[in-house]
Specification:
Length: 195
């Protein structure tokens, strides 16, 4: 109750026992603090904590744990090539990293700050018309702090998301498996990293 004193009749206003009962009841069932906490912890996406972000993730259908496909190109020599060449054939110096062994997991768990941005991006993507200017706004919102990124129309119903910086593991997982980056119906989408 907001005005507890208004609930007590004037003739009982001086009754300490009645006032004690009414005020203690108000503290026990009052929802003002609950509403403030609910708004800050769950409803307001800017201040939501882990649980609140998980709720928002379910609402916009995007998960906190994403799968990332690791790089399959490694340093090697010509005699190790297969015929015909495949994507993961050995690469020369300065073109690919050394093989570091099997990766134990390919799942990335996003931090609250990254997940918050991903939720906002997915919510905007859900109502986007998938035009290049709007897709560029989404990319800039999500990845603008890391470097320059944009959409390129390659013609013949093909488009590319171009990143002029190396994507971190979390960013790569967002691009590959979050489903937050939209693509127009019937258009082939490529991911290009220009490092």
């Amino acid at each position: 109750m907001i005005n507890v004193a208004d609930t007590i009749l004037t003739q009982y206003a001086d009754s300490q026992k009645l006032k004690s009962l009414v005020y203690s009841f108000n503290e026990a069932v009052g929802i003002e603090d609950f509403l403030d906490d609910f708004y800050d912890i769950i409803w307001n996406i800017q201040t939501a904590d882990t649980y609140g972000l998980d709720v928002w993730g379910k609402i916009v259908v995007v998960g906190r744990q994403l799968t990332v496909t690791q790089n399959e190109e490694y340093f090697g020599f010509d005699e190790a090539s297969s015929t015909p060449p495949v994507v993961d054939d050995p690469q020369p110096f300065n073109q690919a990293p050394f093989y570091t062994g099997e990766v134990s997991t390919s799942t990335v768990t996003l931090t609250n700050d990254v997940y918050r941005k991903l939720i906002m991006m997915k919510a905007a993507a859900n109502i986007s018309d998938c035009t290049i200017p709007n897709l560029n706004k989404l990319l800039t919102f999500m990845f603008g702090d890391s470097g320059r990124c944009y959409v390129r129309n390659d013609g013949d119903m093909v488009m590319s998301y171009v990143f002029e910086f190396p994507l971190s593991t979390a960013e790569l997982a967002i691009v590959q498996s979050s489903g937050a980056i939209p693509s127009p119906i019937g258009v082939t989408v490529n991911i290009v990293q220009q490092v």
